[in-house]
Structure formats: structure tokens, C-alpha cells
Amino acid sequence: MNENSLDTLLSKIGEFGRYQIRVITLLLLVIAFSYVASISWLFETKNLNYRCSIPECDEDVLDLKPAWWTNAIPSISNEPAKCSRFKSIGNINGTNCSSIDFDKNILLACDEYIYETSERSILQDFNLHCDENLWKLTTVGTLNSIGSLIGLPLIGILSDKYGRKTILINSILLCAISGLIRSFVNSYIFYMVMVFVDSFFNAATYTTAFTLAVEFISPKQRVIVVSLISLFYAFGGVITGTVAWLLQSWRPLLQILYGVQLLIVTYYWLLPESVRWLLIKERYLEAQKILNDIGREKQFNVPLQTLKDLQAPVDQLVDAADVNTTLKQFFKSFALTTRLINCIFCWIVAVFVYQGLTINSVALSTNTYFDFILTVLIEVPGALATFFVMKTFGRRFTLCFSFFMCSICCISFIFIPQDLYWLRLCIYLLGKCFSAMDFSVMYAITTEMFPTPLRNLLLSVCSMFARTGSMIAPHIPLLELIWKPLPLILFGITSLMSGVLCLKFPETKDVKLPDTIDESISIGTKKEITRCNT
Length: 534
Fold this sequence. Notes:
It contains 25 helices and six strands. It is mostly helical.
């Protein structure tokens, strides 16, 4: 490690002291609640089980499948049709409703509906019943991904220009406001507008908080923080699923989860700016104050001149701050360009498989809330495993291993007989666990491979392209209509491809964060890493 670098300075004044623990804790809360905007639509758009209301028969108990339902409602796969009923004949008194009371040759559209549970989604509030309106439910998830796709690069550029802290806080605040507005709307179109606005501002919340956290600690402690981030992201999913399970109504769900996020306004006084970003912007006094706060535990004060002499000359730092100039230098390097392309592909696959396994998990049991929480909880051992494997074997080995193991689990799942439920469940959850591992390692290795002036931008670009995977994933279950094992086969093949391609990444374990283009190119060139050959 260069003796004249910020990483070296952090190692001297405090690698992971009380001040850094406080900052990381604040950012972990942001990470947890970033899950809300990315997944709440899954509960808002829940396609509930319902049937036509039969006023002539539904007098006392409003059951989904009363004893007489086959007399009044067409049967589809032994279930009541959702949007049609038979025409009644004459006056029907009571709830017996025999077959002679209905003409089964005449079908009528429904005027009202009876639901299996008391759950409430936008399906009822915006009258999105029946097959012809299903696309309006699925489009919500697609629009959520589109908003993120557009917001990621723009917010990434803004955070590199105006600071991680400023953009992070304002983005969360605007995201919370748009989420609260969405909970009160009575128009589907206005609802969709708010979905887009919400996802736009939430797009870079995770990446910006991740970058800020990583830039605050020394290389030796990064793996701990990366694992904690994965852990808290999973907890965010558990919180979302649990609150949704308790409320089972989309409006109060949004009001509670987004209302809490308004507390982000306190971060203006609690959260410091990125020291690396301040140094690049030559705001040395602000950087000095933060570093002195970090070093107070060891009674270490950082001289102002030390900051000015860090790593690169001032003129290099000024040039690095010019994003356009730095981007031109970046793409002149064949090694960095191919590294970025490879990184983007692996990101797409990581998100595609991660989201796909989460969405497909609803087939594990009849309780979708339990299914969701279970697939999120499995990420906790994944986060713990990520910590130990990354710390012992490095980033590249962990990434290759998790991609390969996810592929094996997905492919082997399709060969397990249907009657071996618990074995199928364990293999499926194990695949999700490895998917969560490669997802979190992608963040870590991407952050550590690229230079400081472009770090947040390129992380946002990778995450932006990864949204194409999240846009495709919700539609993958439709492939089961062609061949039931097809979705899992697709997950397995793409994971295998990424496992092979990530062998080309440099090992970044215990390597200082590169501040310049040359430093990024040099990662992995001085010492060949061959440990990821399993």
C-alpha cells in the first residue's frame, strides 16, 4: 500500500473506530429501507384470489367457494372463474342456489366480486380485475425498474459532482414524499407517475450509501462492512414482508414504511460527507475536521499539509474531478473498457437470477408473505458466508464460487421429484443464498476496481444495466407455460456463464481504493492471482 494514501492514513488514525461505527450504522439503516421502494410494489399489486359476487346467493357468509358455487359460476381448473357467472333464472330465495336456478349456456360479466381474504391491493382500488387488466398490475414492476434505469446514471453523476451525502439525503427525502403521495392517490395513472418518481429517486440510494460506507474505512475492514450491508439489506426485506403480512393493505403499508424514511432529514446533521470526495474537490478543511473526529479516539490530529500531499498531486486531483475528461481517459484503456463490459454482464445476471428466484418463490407454499420472508431470510447466512469466504479467499474466488454454486442448485432443482418437497425447498433456498452472495460481492468488487472520480458513476451504470435483469425477471414464470423447468434452467446457464467470465476480474482483497486511471489499470497486474481456479 502506498505510504502516502488515504487508506494508509485511515489505518493510522482508526481503521474502524467509534466514529466510523456510527457513520456505518447510519448508512446501514439507509440500506435496509432502500429495500422498501424496490420491492413494495410486489405487495401493492398482489393479484388476489376472487370470484363473481352472486347477490342472489351471497347473503350470509361471503365464502370464495360455497357449496353451491359450481351451480352459479364456471369452473376453471376446479376453481371458480374470476370474471364470469351463469345467468340466474327467476327469483332465487335463500342460499341453496341449485343448478336449476341458473342457465349454464349464458355467461354474464361480474358487477361485484368476493375475495378469498381481507387483503387489499390496487386491484380493488383501481378496478384492475380480470385477465385483460393483468398487464396493468405487472407493468407496475416494469415501470419501477424503468425509473431506476433512468435515475441511476443521473443521480450517480450528481453524487460525484455535488457529494455523496447531499444527493443521498435529498434522494431518500424525495423518495419518501413520493411514496406517501402514492398511498393517497385514487387514479391509476397518477399512481404510476408516483411509482416512476419513487423509483427514480430511490435508484441510487443503495449504491450511494454503499460507496460512502466503503470510502470511510480502510481496505482490511471493507469485507466486514460489505457483509453488514448485505445483512441489513436482507433485514430490510424481512421488515417489508413482515409489515405487509401484518397490515395486508397497500395504503397503510406505504404510509408506515415511507413515513419512517422522513427521519432522513436528521442526517443533514448526523452524517459526514465522503472524505475522498472532499479531497478531490480540494475541500481540505472539511476533510481535516472529519479525519480529526475519526482520530480523536487515538488522539491523532491530521495536519492540513498531509491532506494536500495525499497520493496524487493537486493538479491530478483537479483533472480527476472532471468527469468528462476522466471518462475519455477511462475508455482509452482497453483493459478498463473490457473490465466494465464484463462487469455489466455479470451485474445483469446477478440481478436477474436474484430477482427471478425471489419472484418464483411464491410456488414454495400457499402463503406468499411467508414465501417472501423465507427467501429474504436465506440471505442472512449468505451474508455471513460472504464475510468469511471473502476475508479468507478474496473477492474473485467468492464471486466465482457463488455463481457456480447457484448454477448447480438451479439445474439440480429440476431433477428432484415433486414429492420430495423439503429437499426441493432446501436446494431452492440454497440457490437463493448463493445468488445473494454473488449479488453482494458484485457491489464490493465493482467499488474496488474503478477510480474514485468515476467510482459512484460506474457503480451506478452497472446497477443501471442490471435493472434490465430486474425488468425481465417478473415475466420469467411465463416460460413455465412452454416448459416448466425452463426458468430454473435459464437461471442456471446464465449463472454458469458469469462464473466463468468473472475469472477475468482482478483480485482486490486488501488493495487500496484506486484514485486514478493508472491505479485502476495496475490492480492485479503486479501479482498474478490464480486462486480462483476451482
